Amino acid sequence: MYKIAVMGDYDSIYGFAALGLSVFPVEDEESCRTTLNRLAQSGYAVIYITESKAAMVEEEISRYREQRLPAIILIPGIFGNTGAGIAQVKKSVEQAVGSDIIFTE
Description:
This protein is of the alpha/beta class.
């Protein structure tokens, strides 16, 4: 059975534990990279990561986008929304459909 993980700064992710998700607080770039790679190799099908921490490991995330699993999904943290998560969704839709069908005005 696949698992779901949430990683980011502690204050942004601790509430997800109440939903039964595995939470992994990370502080710096090295711990973020190490944790992401460990989760990807450990059977996690979905990894939610805060936008601020995802910015630290963009190269790693891009590498995993080429694979079927895990799905890495950016979420806003307590510091606010940077727009990176919406940009990721837009890019994924454009790749799948061939054009921007969601965000056109």
